[in-house]
Design goal:
GO terms for molecular function: nucleic acid binding. By secondary structure, the protein is of the alpha+beta class. 30% of the residues lie in helices and 43% in strands. The protein has a single domain (2-167), classed as 3-Layer(aba) Sandwich (Trna Endonuclease, Chain: A, domain 1), CATH 3.40.1350. The protein has a six-stranded mixed sheet with strand order 1-2-3-5-6-9, sandwiched between helices. A three-stranded antiparallel sheet has the order 4-8-7. A two-stranded antiparallel sheet has the order 10-11.
């Protein structure tokens, strides 16, 4: 039985990652006009092109449970892998897309934030990670957003008569 649980968790993790990649692809292609492709490369999930400029994107998706701290880590080693993947793609710019989904005041909030890999150094650090916050309580993040270092897309959806996002 234990093996089945591990396999189920692995499958959920894979599907969650694919969902995050699809969401980033949708935003970048439909809303911003990028050509986006999925790539299978160490340190990178997507490549995007627009106006002759290439980007390599690492997608970090997280669905938070109520009461959980709204933050995600990005390992220093992953930063090196992303920069190497971007270098291998003829000097493309590395981007990290952080996606967080959580419930707040009866609404499902989806936050998609994009940061250039060269700006990761501006994020708070903890052990071997940069720390990324999804809520509005962190003044460092508010300044980075105001300065255009982090580009953030926020979608709020009223859950109405739904439980855990499932309508009845």
């Amino acid at each position: 039985m234990k093996g089945d649980d591990m396999q189920d968790k692995s499958l959920r993790t894979k599907r969650s990652g694919e969902f995050g990649e699809n969401l980033v692809t949708d935003i970048m292609s439909k809303e911003w006009g990028f050509d986006v492709d999925r790539i299978d490369s160490v340190g990178a999930d997507l490549s995007a092109y627009k106006d002759g400029v290439a980007y390599i994107i690492s997608v970090k998706y997280r669905r938070f449970t109520p009461g959980e701290s709204l933050q995600e880590g990005f390992d220093f080693k992953d930063e090196s892998k992303l920069k190497e993947a971007a270098r291998r793609r003829c000097g493309a710019t590395g981007i990290v897309a952080f996606i967080g989904c959580f419930l707040k005041d009866g609404k499902q909030i989806t936050v998609c934030s994009f940061i250039n890999s060269s700006h990761l150094i501006l994020l708070p650090k903890r052990k071997d990670n940069y720390v990324f916050y999804f809520d509005d309580k962190n003044s460092t993040f508010e300044k980075l957003i105001q300065d255009g270092v982090i580009y953030r897309v926020v979608e709020k959806r009223d859950l109405g008569n739904s439980v855990n996002g499932v309508d009845f």
